[in-house]
Design a protein that fits this description.
Largest interface: A-C, 28 and 31 residues
Distance between the termini of chain C: 40 Å
CATH class of the largest domain in chain A: Alpha Beta
Radius of gyration of chain C: 21 Å
Number of helices of chain C: 9
Structural class of chain A: alpha+beta
Order of helices and strands of chain A: HHEEEEEEEEEEEHEHEEHEHEEH
Number of helices of chain A: 7
Oligomer: heterotrimer
CATH topology of the largest domain in chain C: Aminopeptidase
Distance between the termini of chain A: 35 Å
CATH architecture of the largest domain in chain C: 3-Layer(aba) Sandwich
CATH superfamily of the largest domain in chain C: Zn peptidases
Helix content of chain A: 10-25%
Number of domains of chain C: 2
Chains: A alpha+beta, B alpha+beta, C alpha+beta
Chain lengths: 332, 360, 352
Amino acid sequence: MKSLIKKLVETPGPSGFEYEIRDVIRQAIGDTADEVRVDALGSLIARKGTKSPDGMRVMISAHIDEIGLMATHIDENGFVRFTNIGGINPLTCYGGRVLFMDGTRGVIGMDGLARGKMPKLSDLFIDVGAGSKASCPVKVGDVCGFERPFLDLGKRMVAKSMDDRIAAAVAIETLRRLGSTPHEVHFVFSTQEEVGLRGATTAAYGVDPDVGFAVDVTVSGDTPRRSNKMATALGNGPAIKVRDASFIADPRLVDWMITTAEKAGIPYQLEVLEKGGTDGRAIQLTRAGVPASCVSIACRYIHSPSEMVDSDDVENAVKLLVKLLESPIDLE
Amino acid sequence: MTEKITIMDKKQLDLLEKLCNATAVSGDEFEVRKIVREEIDAVADEVTVDALGNVLAIKKGRGANKVRVMLAAHMDEIGLMIVKKDDDDDLFQFELVGGIDDRQLPGKAVLVGRDHLPGVIGAKPIHMTTKKERQNKIKVSEMRIDLGPDIGDKVEPGDRATFATRFAVLGPSVCAKALDDRFGVAILIQLLRQAPDHIDLLAAFTVQEEVGLRGARVAAYAFEPDMAVAVDATPAHDLPHWDEEDENVHYNTRLNEGPAIYVMDRATIADRRLVRWLQETAEDMGLPFQLRQPGGGGTDAGVIHKTRSGIPSISVSVPARYAHTAASIARLSDWANTVKLLGAALERVTPDLLAGERRN
Amino acid sequence: MTDLLSQLKEMLSASGLSGFESPIREIVRTAWEPLTDELLVSKIGSLHGFKQGSGPDPRHRVLISAHMDAIGMMVTEIRDGLMHVTEIGGLDHRILPGQPVTVHGREDLPGVVVQPPAHLLPDSVGDGPVEMKYLMVDVGLLPREVQKKVRVGDPVSYAQAPLELTGEALAGHTLDNRVSVAATTLCLEALQSRHHTWDVWAVASAQEEETLGGAFTSPFDIRPDIAIVIDVCFAKGPGSNDWRSLPFGKGVGIGYGPNIHPALYDAFEKKAKDLEIPYHKDLMPKMSGTDAMAVQIVAEGIPCAVLGIPLRYMHTPVETVSLKDIRRAGRLMAEFITDLDKDSLNQIQWDA
């Protein structure tokens, strides 16, 4: 699975510009799905299985967009000003390397900041090595993501965009391993999550599921000074989300996910995330309502260029999802 | 740079004046709705007013395979609502409706209610202020609207108020309140009149954009279009930087450079097929255009594109300085070129425009 | 006719935090069972009570939305048998220290919110208010018992028992918005002996305090022609005396603003005047802060009215309300609904 993960995390694709990562995923899915389509906002939807009497239409949503930057102004000396696509922490930018969708590469610099002050995005700029506006290959509206190679530390893995390419990997692997299922499962590789769950909103309307699960990363509370006071930690298993800041998971689903994990002997942890939202909300508020939850992968340093996850958590997330989809879903 | 001044004809200018001078604060768009209905009743095939007060007009095309194109422009403007009469005098407390910088309020003339009753937002005489006091903003809760001592019950809590600015033409410019988005309303009326007959044109004159893009959401659900264009006004922050050394890199748009095409604001990442559609039209027609700087803000497209299973959408705006204040200034040529661009672009709509997947 | 006070007390004895409304839903279901033709539960837990109108098919539909969920807390971490919590919905952390609460774990556990001693808090706190992340909940059990009975994600509700105050006032937690559910029950009771031609959909909605989830989803399938949203509004009291607050116990609030269809405001105002029910114009210049924010923009849009029951100390465990205003609201809704006929929708126009 690591080579799939490497390919996914290294493919550029900020919100709204997911065409390359979509092609990669379409390739990776190959023939494992019964049907593949792309909707109006660019989400890739792969259907597997048909609904049997004790089955449901299930939507699984993993977002394929990543955070990035868009050029807003090129000055006379060829420096590029930018705005954010999704949540960007200026602290993670300085000295960062970026890759534009057309292949142009650059560095994020900072200028004019008083000592001891926190930088704002407007204090930063991208330097692509151009000497003037005329010779600068970047134009207003061009889009870039951060560029870092995938790093395999054995049990732990590091990359930019583990949020949420690790979930895309989990979804693809689940699709591959899913044998028989009573459900009609729609694996949605959603776009534009980072800018407001947009792809999942329209995809959920189109799929019109009976139940839904998002797959995303979540904050882990296991760094040295525990500034994130959360009960989650790397290596403690996939997290079953009770709530995040954007929605409260359906408690019936949460209970059923816990029961399923315990029966199958899959380690799990429970997640209460006070900041941050996921596609689960978009699914839950669709049409007349959809019971929704989320399987999360604990992740350190989210929205930095070096996000870290645990490979056993990833493997167990796949196992859990496969188990959840193999049998009828109990909503009592 | 030489300016191509294309003056809109007198009829259109009069219409814009009427629209800008009308009061239509979010939630009470009556006056503009009335003007819109008068203007389009004879032109559209179907006109309805929905549950929120949107005016939904359809101009059907002829033939098969017609693309359903939605246009949206919002009728509402930012303004004030009277919330209470003081117990011991005839002054009125008020609240802001929509985003207004409260520094724009003191010492302004306003018009209150359907009868446009004149009033003022007073401010303390400077003689009675201290230097320290003048360093702080005047709070909205300390401001009052004064319509004179005999106002009686002609004004009551719930009434809306707007700046009293009257529309004026200043050389190549117009100066008025509510250019955001009476420009859009006027443009939609014009486009309905000259609608090409190979598309279905679905014009939504929306309500409550300024308080959360609310009207557009239900209008898009009802129309179910194939694609959508939001027509709005957008700030031109093209003034000089206070520090002469510094370049103004956050101008958003500039006056005189034509209609502003959006690639990204806080609410929408534009479908690039539609960006190209407009750009290529402009280039082929020799029309000026600019890209609005990606960044903040939002238009009706923000909710339209997320409706149902998704609707490819884009926004185009007339650049205007000092939006959301008593007096906005824009160039007539930018307005004219926006109408021209959209008129020509609509002619070029075909089912091929959105064939295939959304890519780059 | 059920006694309003005992009905309220029963509702207040059940928990029903946003997302976890099952207990309160069962109580409302029992109350609405004899008053409706059909009861359904939505996919995300709202209760829909359908009462058919007497008019011929096709009948118009009026939806009443009263959210039944409540604000509270949720366990984020358990350390040494003590729990850290986060909020569900919005609450002022300054009222938390010393509050009696119930932890809804594998069983309901009574406990208290505790403020740790100063030496266990950051220096920066001083003698100022302590943020929620430093407060804890103590249920008095040993750590290994707690581990067995409580887990991360368990909801925690206020445990303050309701108090009857003078002048038919009631104080307690979660009067926001159980009083509106009670008013809806009163309305349904009144309709038992009255003729109404429109279909009535009474919705006890879920998740208002968190996502307006019930308000976005219930109207989608029901597609009412008009909706009445009933919620609590601010009553004048200490620190809450400006234009946003209505007099306490002196009448129902009728909402006015962009969320509300002006024709419905007019209709309710007229009804209140005709019936001599005291009311106040409740100004909502931007949004109403109620289910109406969502209901109004579902599908093709739904004209909304917003009724408010004035309430003091909102989102604290001692919310205070006048029973008179609850009865007034219930009666106003019932009378409005019995008046609806086949021409009523024509009156709900713009610029009429």
